[in-house]
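Regression test attached.
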Amino acid sequence: MKNPLLLPLLLLPVFLPACAFLEAAGDVEIPADSIPHAQFLLKWPDVDKLVGGTLTKAGSGQMPSSFPTSLQDGSLAHVQGMMTIDGECKRAYDQPAMDDPKLPLRNLHVDVINCGIVGRCTEACKDEYGEPFRGVRLWARVQFNLVSAATAAKITETMKGQNNPEMIAQIRLRFSKLAFIQNFTDPATGKTSVEDIEPLFSGYELGVGTAYPPGDPTAVNDDTPIVKQRYLSQISPETPQRFELDPTSDFSLKLRTAIVTGEQVWIAVYQRIDVPEQNLYGVRMNGGGVDLDFQPEIVISFVKTVTGAL
Amino acid sequence: MRYATALALMGTWTLLAVSAPAALAQTPPNPQTPPNPAPPASPAPQAELPPPPPPPPVILDAKPEPPPVAQQPRVAMPLPVAVTPVAVPVVVPPKPAPKPVVVAPPAKVVVAPANPVTAPTAPEAIAGVEDAKVKDGEGDKKKHEFVKGELASVGSIGLVPWENRVGAVVGMERIGDVFYAAITPSINYSTELNDQPFSMSFGVPLRLEVVDTRPANAATGDAHGWSHAGRFRKQDWDEVGDFAQIIRQIQYGGKESHLYVDVNAFKASSIAHGTILKRYNPNLNLNSRQVSGEVDGFTYWVGGELFVNNVVAPNVIGGLVFVKPLSFVNRQNYVMRSFSLGLTAVADVDAPLRAKLDLADVDNNGIRERQYLVDQNTYKPFYTATTVLATGIDAEVKLIDTKNTDWKTYLDYSMLMSGLPTDGNHPVDGMPPTRYVSSGGLTWGNLIRLNFGNDTVHALRLRAEVRRYDQNYLPSYFDVMYEVQRLQYRIGSRTADPNGTKVQAILGRPITNDGAAVIGAYFEASWRIAEIFAMAVGIEVNDTEPDNNLFVHLEMPEYKNFQFLATFHRRSATTAGNLFGFKSTGREIFLAKARYRVVDWFHINAEAITPFGIGPDSFFANTLDFNINLEFGFGYGAKK
């Protein structure tokens, strides 16, 4: 070959693809066995505990004559009726520790919002389109140990000692189960079974945010939605579904920063459902809850890990 | 840095050999003002007619073609050499590769200034060049062709070699998240048919998968990755329409001839004065490839253009008809014969109205509402479609027509029409209910063309427009980025907004300030020095809307064994000042292409580009890609 450039030019395309493949195939997922699988039933609080042992704040003497003395078998319609009598927009329930201490959960907080009083509670009772909602809204917020100490060590190892939050390309949850259930007792046979109440509510949303200590005055709302109602029907053990945490959200940046510190991380997981008025009788709190089965996933950008070390 | 790109769709054009006649046919004259010979019945030639046929020019070359046929009544092209029709120019081009023969025409000469070795943009096919003529140089020492038309190849997405060649291009491509080894056997041929240039160029892209970077899909059980390495990409050839992609160019005649046919896979196109469709490139979305078609035909009194963006399944269809009513009265007076009235219409019959999102996470990456629903085989997004129609009327007349200066002025009023969704905050699946919306704009434009010099002609071209239009109107709605912005208008925001389509972004704009009209301006300047150098700049600003645009173009058509082309566009800047900032808006187009002839049988093509396409994030974005293609082949035959 007379031209000295010929050979190197011929070889150039052989080497250049490495750059592309490095980036394209450069995302590494933290192995699933390094991040504990989360599977639990998040029960609604005992309805009598929720109302504080008395059905109304005014006392039983104020109750209508046909009103039950306990709401153990009552529906959300009864809860709403009770709150309406008291003129309440919201009742809250807190449970600092879970009944099962092995669960990676703590600080359960539940709000029951009464959206049945015309002209009141309007700010708290808007649907996802900003229009008025009538019924009962349930909020549950619990703190979840996303990154345990062992997981943090594995992440640190994978990231080769780097601590650039941008190296975390994606944080996502892979759900195999996400179902709202309640016990149903057949009045004819007396047998109890579990039923899915998804058809009875709307506006479902599961999201995450910063896990502030209860009552923290510095708390800032950075809740970021992850799962919405339209996806619930897609989730099953046979068809697990992934949902990423929006990487552009403020919380995402905070979380990525926290993860790369190599310490364990707690996050707040919230869920919300809206039960419209016509379905209130079909939803009972006792024996019900959210059946969850999900795998947190963290994807590390290998390229950014490498270049970050340069 | 990504090396492999889908840019073999562009870069691999470099195997194509577009001959002199082919490049000649790319000359973009104004169809509204056809060539200007005297009426056939007139015994006296018009002042603008060229002199009698000169002796044939002689082109010297390291590898000269067979002797040119001087008698061929063809229109000359300034291919790698500059040619004058009168003096006997002897120009020795630096390139050792075979050169096309340039023949001086016996009757009329039109010099196509567009770079013959680059894919042409043809914006001035719309409005610029009209009268074929030869003008005297100053002092009558020498004569040269009056250079007009597009002076630079703004909008070109590829370099085109000049020889008749057969061979293959080997390189890497990326389509979506999948990398392919690409081999493209190609051939081109140029000849004459009925005394008109006729060229054809074909290529057969064959792709073999290398790696699929998508995550494994549990639902389908497809592991992706390297599991399908070596697999032939059948999707390239599984539909009848796929076979159109072997066409790279079929071109007959020139824009200044009475019949012009162009079937093309890489060029940008314009219609009329460009107030509706300007430098629209159907192939800017690099995940898809379309072969566009254009047919022009005209007489001295009437004429028209027809354009489709895809000859197999067109969705953008445009046309122009014009009449030169005063030509019936007097063709000797340049004012009267140049006056024309035109009617233009362009429609996108498959315009995205609302994009669909990946709510089912078909790519299994967990991203749903931030990315579009994309066909995982073709990487084309899904959307609900509507029709966008733009129509316009215009009038133009030439104010000055001297041997070195042309000045024409035109007035154009255009309208944009479509339907917008009325389902507001409660979007419905499928086709939403819509309401009719229209808007319009007025443009007053001037086009000035100047030539300087004799031996080395400097051509200067200036276009200035003043515009007044509705807030929900956009001049040149079908523009250089239409193919990607039609679905995602605010590219660069890196979010998938289902209602962020161009038709909603423009026609659906909230009207503010009591509907006060937008005042805008457009200025464009091009400068070309023979085949040595060309450059162009353009700026488009307004006082209200975030639709300010800028482009800069540099071109070295041929220097020894080297070709070079670079274009930078910044589109849809929020303010005029943002056009000049260093911060990227995400709506930039950068194309830099170089072709180096190592030896006769081997060329290497290098590109640095920012292609737009649906990538791993499943929304349109541009990324900086570098691409190297190897071109093996040999020239054959001699062009006739």
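Expected vs. actual: identical. Chain A touches chain B through 36 residues (CB under 8 Å).
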